[in-house]
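Thread: quick sanity check before group meeting

JM: Hey all, I'm pulling together slides for Thursday and realized we never actually wrote out the predicted structure for the chain we discussed last week. Dropping the sequence here so it's in one place. If anyone has concerns about the input, flag it before I start.
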Amino acid sequence: MTAHSPTTMPGRAAAPRWRVTWAVRENQRRRRAFDSATAVWHRRNDHLVRLRIEAAGFHGYAHPRDSLPMDLGRDEVVYRVLPTAELAEAGARHIAGLPAPELTVTAPGAHPPRRGLPTGLRVVDEGMAVVTNHRVVFSGGASCREWTYADLVGRPTTPTSR
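JM (edit): ok, ran it. Output follows.
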């Protein structure tokens, strides 16, 4: 019995040239896709780091208190005033097809493109929204609503039945 090298073994042919060429091209394509996805991830990470740094140093706006649709507490700081806001209402508690929450940052004065509301949501009022360190207040033509952060993240104030 004689020993054979792997290239001269009977029944083992070298890979066809087209297969090697395809593998090299496929590897290059996958590497470009990976590098592209990595670059997108790094850009988003850098953007979020910048936003976090800006938010840590942000101490609120010095808006005149008399131009707001509400009375501010002594220690209340205005973070954002949205002169045109829409109050949307859901027709049911759970609506299929709502968009996932996402980070959207627009330049001051720029308006994002308006998209239609998903089925089950409707605009009930338009007006001004004010975001402070204690609450969010919406003042529209038909109503004035307020949501305090303690009510939004705290325990329910009504007892639950067991």
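AS: nice. The CA atoms of residues 70 and 137 lie 8 Å apart. Strands lie at 78-90, 121-132, 135-140, 144-148.
JM: adding both to the slides.
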